Amino acid sequence: MRTGTKVFLVIFLLILAGGVVIGVDVYLSWKTFNDNPGAFSYSTPVFALAPDNSSVDVTTTITTPTLGYIPKSARIDIIIMNGTEVFGDPLQVTVKLGTSQVINFTVIFEMDIIVYITDGNSIALIAEISATPIYIGIPLNFLMQELGDIPINLP
User: I want to staple 66 with a disulfide (CB 3.0 to 4.6 A). Which of 4, 18, 83, 98 is the partner?
Assistant: First the structure.
């Protein structure tokens, strides 16, 4: 057998072995995730309204599962809804899987909402949170989980 053929065969076998390892790890991640559908969770959020009613700070702790053997991360998507419309820009935070991490985000209000709150009215927002595991930079959208909604009722 020629040297070029040997090198090709070794490279091919290494790529094949790597594909098998990655495939098994993704399968184990999927199996663990399906066996424990509440794997991602968050704590009761804490709200802090700015003194001038211009924004609200929201703090919660996201707990993530360990999936498979190869370390992964998760993209946490937070969308603030005011009724049925999206309020502000969606927020994305990346966390390491298998940990608990504090997530802080701020909702900045437009002038009409500031005046509305200052006049003594209340406002109800919803923060929709979802988590998508990321494996070697690739989002595993089939494992995406909705964490639920955080109601933000002010004041």
Answer: 98
Each of the 155 residues of the chain gets a pLDDT tens digit; together they read: 677 788 888 899 999 998 898 888 888 877 877 777 667 788 888 888 888 878 888 888 888 888 778 888 888 888 888 777 777 778 888 888 888 888 888 888 778 877 878 888 888 888 888 888 888 888 888 878 887 788 877 66
Nearest 5°: phi and psi at 43? -85, 170
Residue 106: closest CA among 54, 142, 69: 54
Q: Which two tokens stand for residue 100?
A: 């608990």
Its domain, for residue 38, covers 3-154
Structural contact between residues 72 and 30, judged by C-beta atoms closer than 8 angstroms: no
Is-contact 71 96, C-beta < 8 A?
Answer: yes
Radius of gyration of the chain (CA): 22
The enclosing domain of 68 has a CATH number of: 2.60.40.10
CA 75 – CA 147 distance, rounded (Å): 12
Distance between CA atoms of residues 154 and 151, nearest Å: 10
Q: What is the pTM of this model?
A: 0.73
